[in-house]
Amino acid sequence: MTDPVRLRGIELRYALTLYLFQHGRCTVKELIDGLRWQGFEFSGRPSKAVSDALRWETKIGRVYRRGRGLYGPASMPRSTEYRIHQRVLSLRERASEAHCRSEAGKSGVGSDGLAGL
Fold first, then answer.
1. Is 77 exposed, middle or buried (0-12, 13-18, 19+ CB in 10 A)?
2. Distances from the Cα of 7 to the Cα of 28, 35, 50, 72, 114, angstroms
3. Could you give the CA distance from residue 112 to residue 7 in angstroms, rounded to a whole number?
4. Strand order of the sheet with strand 70-73?
5. Would residue 110 count as lying in a domain?
6. CA 14 vs CA 24, 50, 81, 84, 110: distances in Å
7. What is the CATH number of the domain that holds 30?
8. Residue 53's domain spans which residues?
9. Residue 1: which pLDDT band, with cuts at 50, 70 and 90?
10. Dihedral (CA of 18, 36, 50, 64) sign
11. Contact by Cβ (8 Å): 50, 56
């Protein structure tokens, strides 16, 4: 069984920023649930990883903080948005492939393609 794609650093920041731009204002819990649904995992405590990553994005000006644990999209140049979107698409593809490989081992079909014959 393969591990899910673990997000950290710039990959986590990009995935969170893109999620906010696609879904609008979200809580930290909604962000965690949304990224887990896409097949991603976090290193350490997810809420801390998310808030630390969004603190960086807030300083850059791509994300704004609306209150405790509530963030929303700010502004971003089109070229940056394109670059982030492409990177997150490749991460989602990796997560999807990891999920498919882990599900393939659960089917009960042997390496010869026959199910227990």
1. exposed
2. 15, 9, 10, 20, 37
3. 35
4. 26-27, 70-73, 63-67
5. no
6. 15, 11, 9, 6, 39
7. 1.10.10.10
8. 5-85
9. very low
10. positive
11. no
pLDDT, tens digit, 9 for 90 and up, residues 75-93: 999 999 999 999 999 999 9
Asked if the structure places residue 113 within a domain, the reply is no
Amino acid of residue 98:
A
Q: Is 70 exceeded by the pLDDT of residue 39?
A: yes
- 100 lies in some domain: no
Mean pLDDT score, 9-15: 95
Number of other residues whose CB lies within 10 A of the CB of residue 11: 17
User: Length of the chain in residues, anyone?
Assistant: 117
